[in-house]
Design brief:
With about 270 residues, this protein is α/β, with parallel strands linked by helices. Helix content is about 25%, strand content about 25%.
Length: about 270
C-alpha cells in the first residue's frame, strides 16, 4: 500500500499542556534517564512518576499490553519511546505522539517513530489506527476522560482497540497539577501553570467507556499494574471531524513518512 503525505498541512500552535511537559524538570529527567519527578496537585500532594521505568526497555507488564496490539499502533503520550521502539523491533508498525520535544527526541534515538503533537490536534491516519495505547497514566491526558475517549474513538478504525493502563486504586479524580522535581532550589525557573489531569481506576474507566458505547475486550494485572482493553463499537460516539481532517489523514503503510511538512522528523530522517 502506498504512503501519501499531505504537503499543504498548516503548522498549528502547540497544545496548552505542551508548555508544562516542556519544562526543565521533565526534559531534564528524560535526558538523565531518572527522577525524582512528580505531579504536584494544587493542594501539595505528590504523585511520583516512574521515569526510570519509562526510560528503560519494555518490561513484562508492557509486553502483556503490546502482545494484544492489533494492526498499526498509535502510542498517545509516548514519552521516551520504549513501547514504540519495542513494537518497531518486533516488526510492528507503530507511531508515538507527545507534546514534549525531549520525549520525541528520545523516542527517535531509541529507534521509534514519533511526532511532536497533541492527541487533540489533527493526526496522521485518523480513523485508520488498529490500536491506540494510553499507558503510564495517560488516560489522564487533558483532565477529561470522556473527551479523551471521544477523541480516541475518532482516531481508531471501526472495531479498533484501545489499551489503557489504569490506576490500581478504585479512583475517579480530576485535578490540576504541575511537574515538580522535588527540589527546594529557589534559583530554578518558575514552574509552568497548573494543567488539568485525571486519575481513573478500572471501574471508573469501564463506567465512562460503557456510557459512550465502548465494549470491554479484556482487563488484567501484570507486575502490580492494571490494564483494560476496549473495543470501539459501532455505537461509540466520536469527536466531530474538523475541516482539515482530510489533510491529516494519511494512508498507513509499513513505512512511515521520512518527513511531514511542518512536523518533527520521523525515525530514519
Amino acid at each position: 500500500m502506498s504512503q501519501t503525505v499531505p504537503q499543504h498541512e498548516t503548522v498549528r500552535p502547540p497544545h496548552p499542556d505542551a508548555a508544562s511537559w516542556s519544562t526543565d524538570p521533565y526534559a531534564n529527567a528524560l535526558r538523565n534517564g531518572h527522577g525524582p519527578l512528580f505531579l504536584r496537585r494544587t493542594d501539595g500532594w505528590l504523585l511520583p512518576l516512574d521515569v526510570e521505568r519509562w526510560c528503560a526497555g519494555a518490561d513484562a507488564a508492557d509486553l502483556s499490553a503490546l502482545h494484544r496490539c492489533e494492526g498499526p499502533v498509535l502510542d498517545i503520550g509516548c514519552g521516551p519511546g520504549r513501547l514504540v521502539a519495542a513494537l518497531a523491533a518486533r516488526g510492528h508498525r507503530a507511531l508515538g505522539i507527545d507534546v514534549s520535544e525531549a520525549a520525541v527526541a528520545r523516542t527517535l534515538r531509541v529507534g521509534g517513530s514519533a511526532l511532536h503533537r497533541s492527541v487533540f490536534e489533527p493526526l496522521p491516519g485518523e480513523g485508520r489506527w488498529g490500536t491506540v495505547l494510553l499507558v503510564d497514566g495517560n488516560i489522564g491526558i487533558g483532565g477529561d476522560p470522556r473527551r479523551l475517549l471521544h477523541r480516541t474513538a475518532a482516531v481508531l478504525a471501526p472495531g479498533g482497540l484501545l489499551i489503557a493502563e489504569t490506576a490500581p486504586q478504585d479512583i475517579d479524580e480530576r485535578v490540576r497539577v504541575q511537574l515538580d522535581d522535588g527540589r527546594a532550589d529557589r534559583a530554578r525557573p518558575a514552574p509552568a501553570a497548573p494543567f488539568p489531569w485525571a486519575r481513573l481506576g478500572t471501574p471508573a474507566l469501564l463506567r465512562h467507556a460503557g456510557l459512550l458505547g465502548w465494549l470491554t475486550a479484556d482487563q488484567w494485572e501484570a507486575d502490580g499494574r492494571t490494564f483494560v482493553s476496549l473495543r470501539r463499537g459501532r455505537g461509540v460516539l466520536t469527536t466531530s471531524q474538523s475541516a482539515d481532517h482530510a489533510n491529516s489523514a494519511a494512508v498507513i503503510s509499513s513505512q512511515f513518512p521520512r518527513n511531514t511538512s511542518g512536523e518533527r522528523p520521523l525515525a530514519g530522517s
